[in-house]
Amino acid sequence: MRENAPVREIQGLLVDPVDGARPGALAIEGDMIVAAEYGPGYPDAPLVVPGLIDLHVYDTPHTRQHGVTGYLATVGTSAPGVVEEFLAALPDEPDCLGAHVEGPYINPEAAGAQAVEHVRPVDVDELERWLATGRVRLVTLAPEVDGGLDAIGRIVAAGAVASIGHTRANFYTTAAAIRAGARFATHVWNAMSGFTARVPGAAGTLLADERVTLGVIADGRHLHPVTEEITLRVAGPSRIALTSDLVPAPQEREDGKLLGGDRIGTALLRRVSATHGLAAAAEMASLTPARVLGLEDRGRLCPGFRADVAILDEALDPVETIVAGRTVWSR
Question: Computed from CA positions of residues 277, 74, 165, 117, in that sequence, does the dihedral angle turn out positive or negative?
Fold first, then answer.
């Protein structure tokens, strides 16, 4: 909080992942929320939700206009030296929470849209250089690759999140990765071994383990609606982090193969809230990803939380995006 900073009051339907959606007024002083008071409804008032957090964004210039107040800039499987250059160029802005390194230590048979020509076994020296920068917050890897389980331990020891993705791991290897400290699943189901009656694969193992948070691209294209619904019902909002995997257009090849996502922030919130309600959708889009990164002051509309706020209209389209108390986008 900044001393003598002006107090801004925002009236509307306050959507808190824990307290639910109720009319009220939010007070912001400096970069902090200082009050959230509930009362009678306000005519024509906007919806106010915690700023959305996305752990998987390639097309980073298009975050603020979609209510995203925190994101991990993502770099994919690439030639040696590219990740170091990417980390050095991360934007110095309060909404850039660090980097997500997706690959190159993945299974080439599950590379998906990743550059298979740059897939390689774990290079411990390379990995340690990335982690030493302090800018890597999440690393996606396949635990079955040579050195995969050791890499998970190193990632966790450095204070970053080890995520399982682009993998053909079976139940036993996936379970071993979780025991080693992996706590996230990158776009669960996509580019991942699924399960059948007797073979749960990586996806089934991750879904069943309550220690793991699942990244879900809930854009209606990456998952069949039944698969998406089963995942959300089994895991629940506290274990689901809505992620975009947003890439610049085109998002798919001529043959229909998906190269990444085309919806982010409020577009995902709107779609999920239609079936699961606003509070649950806000939890999946804000509070849960905040917890994945250990950000205890994000994801709620409560005093003491950082003033990361998205203001929406009745159609859940963004009106204003506030990061650390400062308006960074408005229409």
Answer: positive
**Structure tokens given for 318:** 């963004």
Residues 65 and 57: their CA atoms lie apart, in Å, by: 14
Pick from 136, 168, 141, 137: nearest CA to 152: 141
Does residue 104 have a cis peptide bond before it, meaning omega lies within 30 degrees of 0? yes
Task: Residue 324: name the closest of 97, 135, 137 by CA.
Answer: 97
Residues 6 or more apart in contact with residue 72 via CB below 8 angstroms? 54, 55, 56, 57, 97, 98, 99, 100, 137, 138
Digits of tens for pLDDT over the chain (331 positions)? 455 678 999 999 999 999 999 999 999 999 999 999 988 766 678 999 999 999 999 999 989 999 999 999 999 999 999 999 999 999 999 999 999 999 999 999 999 999 999 999 999 999 999 999 999 999 999 999 999 999 999 999 999 999 999 999 999 999 999 999 999 999 999 999 999 999 999 999 999 999 999 999 999 999 999 999 999 999 999 999 999 999 998 888 778 788 899 999 999 999 999 999 999 999 999 999 999 999 999 999 999 999 999 999 999 999 999 999 999 999 9
80-94 b/e (C-beta count within 10 Å ≥ 16 → b): eeebeebbeebeeeb
Residue 211 CA to its chain's centroid (Å)? 16
Amino acid identity, residue 98? G
Beta-bridge partners for 326: 323
> Which structure tokens are listed for 52?
């959305």
Q: Find where tokens 């990417």 sit.
A: 86
Q: 244 to each of 69, 157, 295, how far by Cα in Å? A: 14, 27, 20
DSSP 49: E
Amino acid 196 reads T
